[in-house]
Amino acid sequence: MAEKPIAVMKRYELKYIVSASQRAFLEERLAPHMKVDKYGITSIASLYYDTPDYRLIRLSVEKPPFKEKIRLRSYGLATDSSPVFLELKRKYDGIVYKRRVQTTIPFVERFFAYEGDITADGQIAREITYFRDYYKTLVPACLIIYDRAAYFEPGGDLRLTLDGNPRYRVDDLNLTTSMEGTLLLPEGSSILEIKVQEAMPLWLTHILDEGHIYRASFSKYGEAYKSQAIRLYERRQQTWTTSSIPYSLLQ
Fold it and tell me: What is the pTM of this model?
């Protein structure tokens, strides 16, 4: 069962890709306005579940108005008894809705095997269960890892994260082995995410303009999916194979 109350989040999430020099500039300019949270830089791993034919990510990369994903997240390496978070993330018309419950790996494994519930009761648990039942079979598909520095605005609702060295694995799909993976971006690059309930403050807009930091469409799982597709295509080209690329072979 979940050990803590479930959480619901609704917000805009604006994404940017920043170089090492842009990150240094941003960190310096943020200092008068925002503070790094008490955890400092934290390594985060998110294990994405998908159908055997990768229905969720195939739809997501087509950029529809509505998309949804489910993932199991840990902060640092997990154990069977340490807390992890099962998150249902939906995006519609630019607004991100996230539901999550705290649980453990054995509970999650039994849940996806239809051998138990993720938590005793609650609306969010019912939404997650409906999601599982709707897609029938959900299995580990991709592990996304990054090193996050999170900032908050004292007295405000503005949140900002910098995810350094985002990387992925499509084998060894668990949260207990390591934080290693293949880089999704050039070394030293980070993903900036600005999370706001309403409009972005003008002072932050000015900083982004000054640093030539511009919005980018970037999904970590989506980029991993496309990267693996390209890798397989190149391997198949080398063997003079011209057939189409079934994503089921990417692992």
Answer: 0.86
Question: pLDDT for 136-169, tens place per residue?
Answer: 999 999 999 999 999 999 988 899 999 999 999 9
Token code pair at residue 196: 């706001």
Cα-Cα end-to-end distance for the chain: 32
The residues pairing with 139 across neighbouring beta strands, listed in sequence order, are: 50
Residue 199, classified by CB atoms within 10 Å of its CB into exposed (0-12), middle (13-18) or buried (19+), is exposed
Radius of gyration of the chain (CA): 19
Q: Secondary structure of the chain in the HEC alphabet? A: CCCCCCEEEEEEEEEEEECHHHHHHHHHHHCCCCEEEEEEEEEEEEEEEECCCCHHHHHHCCCCCEEEEEEEEEECCCCCCCCEEEEEEEEECCEEEEEEEEECHHHHHHHHCCCCCCCCCCHHHHHHHHHHHHHCCCEEEEEEEEEEEEEECCCCCCEEEEEEEEEEECCCCCCCCCCCCEECCCCCCEEEEEEECCCCCHHHHHHHHHCCCCECCCCHHHHHHHHHHHHHHHHHHHCCCCCCCCHHHCC
Per-residue pLDDT reduced to its tens digit, 6-61 = 456 667 889 999 999 999 999 999 999 999 998 889 999 999 999 999 999 999 98
